[in-house]
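Q: What would this complex look like in 3D?
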Amino acid sequence: MNEAVVKLLTRVENARSQLAAAKLPDKAVAYCIAGLERMERVLARAPRVAILGEVNSGKTSVADLLLGAGLLPTSVVGNTQVPVLIRYADRLSLFAVTQNGRQRLTDYGPDDLPSGLELRSIEVGVPSDRLLNFQILDTPSLADAADTINDAEILIWCTVATRAWTESERAVWSGLPPRCWRNGLLVATHRDSLQDAADVMKIEQRLRAVTAPMFRDVILVSAADASEHAAPDIAVARDGSAETLVAHVEALADEIAERRALKGEKIIRRLARLTFHHLASAQLKTEAANQLKDWEARSGALLDDLAHGSASLAGVIESLLREFAHAVELARPGSVRGHSASREVATSGGAGAVGWPLRAAAGQRFARLLAADLTALLRIELAHWGLRDPAKDIDYRMARSALVSLADLGGAFDALGQILLSGRGRPVAAAAEIEPKRYGGSGLLH
Amino acid sequence: MGEIHQGEALAVNGSASLGSGGGASSATRLGGIGAPLQALRQQLLGCGKSLATLLEPAGQALVSEASRVLEQQVCRIAVVGQIKSGKSSFINALVQDPALLPTDVTPWTTAVTNLHFGQAAPGNHAAVFQFFSEGEWQGLAEGGGRIRELTQRLVPGFEPELLRQHVEALRRRAGARLGSEFNQLLGRAHYFASIQADLLRHYVCSGDFAPNTAGVPLGKYSDITKTADLYCGDGPFDYPVTLTDTPGTNDPFLIRDEITRRSLESADLYIVVLTARQPLSQSDVSLLRLMHGLNRERIIVFVNRIDDLADIGRELGQVLSFVEKKLKEEFPGAHIPIVAGSAWWASSALNLDGSALDRLFERRSLGYLSELGLVPREELVRKAMDYAAHRERLRQALLSTSGLPAMHRAVTELMGSSQAAQCLGQIARCFAEIASASESATRSELGSLTDVRGGMVTAPPRSHDQLLQLEQEARVLNEVGVQIGESGKNIEAQLTDIIHEEMDELRIGLERAVNRHASMERDVLMDTLERGRAPKIWTHEGVELRRRLAAVFQSGFERAATRVLEFQARVAPELHELLRLVAPGASVPTAPEGRKLEIPTPTVAPLSRFVALDLDGSWWSAFLRGRPSPAACGAQIESLIKSEFQPVVDDLVASAEWALSGYCATTTKWSFGICINIVQALERRREQLARSYNSLKGNGEGTNLETSQERPAQVRLLTERVQLCGALSHQLDIITRDITRGFGRAQELAT
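A: Here is my prediction, written as structure tokens for the whole assembly.
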């Protein structure tokens, strides 16, 4: 399995178990745990290779080549007119997917389904290490291509080398979205039917020329039909084409896993931050809750000003920070160095050029996110004395710590501090001196 | 206008083989395709020659015209199929000349290649390569001709980008290959007095992905070559045949597909080549559907490349029964012979040298030969081929499993029920009629001659009366001649009326079918759209409508044909009456009853035309996107179906009309020709008698020695003529029966 995915999975699993261990009666936490579990499932699934092609183009042979010899119980899936998904399992297992869902088949007999059940697909679990890197979906040729590609990251189009690439094939393939082209391999089967090496070269040349740019790569294989051999060990083509094919697919699967890890990390960060924003929102004593409400009303008004265009982004951010400094000072007097709770701080105005978003919509999003972050921070300050159940404080700290590290908020706050301090040497709001660091990372626990 | 390239190539005329097919031993050569039909044709030509000597000028003209038609008869066989199904290889095997047409692993054939067998080459050219004309090239170069035109009509302003790219590529390549020559070549042709081994490669091969070689590049002229015509001696054919090789269908290079479709129209027989590994795929089926108009008794399916199957013994049966089942579904009630084999094996057998053997033994498919018991297993090793006897056994085994002998039989059989056979049958019947008419006319002449002799001996003084009577007869004859001419015109006019009436009827029926279908499609589409399920891909069910139109056409044509035949049957007695006035014993041709073959049903080829509605699904979605409301979509589709099928209906009606009036013109011409022939015979006899009476009168009295000496010779001559005519009509009856049997066989097999 891809390294980045493994690393991410470990992080997510750790964070999730921390959150679960806190046992907080908090909706946000419950949502977050469910979301993380789903992400883990998605990440853990090996990229799926769907094998498409016209009738008798050697699809099942290619599946055999990908899987390696003798592991796929071909007697079961041969002549089956439904998609067959082959994935990793600890031991050989077989499932029938019907309109009622997935059903384990104890003995090999997808034809013996109770009447009224319509077989939609078959799933085969095979204990093969190769399947840790990719799953294989063998499709019946009559299947609508659009249906099968939804869950597949890699597509293989099979074509017979001696006829390879006809108009009807082109029509189907070119109708697929470009995403499929990027991760599509054209596999010409029955290479052994060609007379000599020169022919092989010519065919490959032609295929590359006429199918560009619709495939990532073109591979010719001698997909020997397993049924033509008595012994399963020669089902692997003798010319190394199986190895080439597997290497291609594995490289592609790795790349896809890498991309998926990057994307997954982003989603997880966002999920963690959102959870952080909503954490403990219903757990404060009345007085503390009122202080929070007051801040929310003020910050809300500022955001409205920004939305209506009656204030600049820089101005609103400055005001937000000033309001925040005021609220924090109220919540825990002495927090803001060298200042009373007074709001009269020298304004500087026009701190606009420090890399904040220029477009109005993006600016509003940025301000909203900042306000939400600040709300969460204020809630932390209030929680020092304002929790209805003070005993929960330590659990919340634990959960918060897990979320902040998962959301990479330490970094975000650092960045905020940088922005504020780099305001062209101008003394910006007192809020700049709140020491953003004390909310980030492990600092919270001390 | 063209240029003649001379080369030191093999002779083309005679039986010399083209290319380098010299490896075939005479023992393995097969031939005689179409032999039965050729035998019938030869007999008919012989009959024609004999007949011509027995007839008056009117009859002679008819017979010599028919003989000319006979001499020019050619059976046209088109070989069609998807790309890379092995059409060119198959043709090479069929004509037993493995190097005739160039073949390759990539789509290779670019032009329609006509191989003419048993036909004299015009101007003694062995090969003629016709280039696209300026206009045709512009048509292609400006956007792919018909497909472009259809797309434009379907979705105005829609640019088929791909086609444009292909055209661009074609233009660039042609420019690069031909340089300044390019513009001078369009519209012209290259002529060759002989065929060099590599000649064809410059004209009909794409030359794609070929390694660079010195000299003229492969495929130099291929981009602009429209057709190639090669004149090839007799080949394996006894009957004159034109064999057409086509670029494959389903070619992603759309222009080649386009060229093929255009060439499908006018063949007598079609050999559809499939590959064993992917037999009758969806594209094959749509090709067959497009050919539906080409009469179904005229298709042979060749399942090529059985050597590709992993386990031939086990899989071939499955493949064949699959193909058979599928064909039955597509063409219920049709008899389509299926032959399985391998063009590669056939070519290997014809040229079984070391490298052919090496290749054969590289594949495991040879094991099939021992499974069949044709070659002992222990002989199936490369080393065993050092022995001539083993090689010969392998050769025979390869040949018999290659499907070639079966294919020769199938083609021969189908030729027996082809358009050519139909034409032969018609001529045979006409000959028989004129022979029997001539027989009875001669008989009556003979009768009157003996009368005259009797009368003359006994009563010479009555010669004056006789003369008067003859003059009277001459007047009647004249009148009858005029009446025959008039009634001929009259009958022709009536027949024309009948045909017009029937054709109007046919048109109404066809249009009704189209309209009903159009409104049904409209309702279905509107219903789908209204339920909010805008179809991503909506395919028009053109097959249904085509089937319906074919049925309407069939019944409409049969009704018209029956009316024409009935009318002719009614007219026959009138003619008879007329002739009885002058020749009491003469028999006139009567319209045949219950002989449906008499008027051959024309093909429904217009139905196979590619209409805009048959376009690929992705173009449809563009069409649907453009129309806002379901009602507008529905209305649009309705009018589109109507306007697309209107020309099809027009062409169907035209072809029916052409067939019927052609038949009527021919039969009327023959019936009246025969009558005129009789009148001319009578006239000749009258003049003869008049001469003899006049000379009697001049002598005053007594017997005329000259005439009395002439008479026995005359009688002998006429008696001979009667016998000859009788023999001829007998022989022609047999020929007609033989031809009819060929059709009967085909029909028998179909049921």
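A: To summarize the key features: The two ends of chain A are 38 Å apart (CA to CA). The beta strands of chain A are 48-53, 84-88, 93-98, 101-104, 121-126, 135-138, 154-160, 184-189, 217-220.
Q: Very helpful, thank you.
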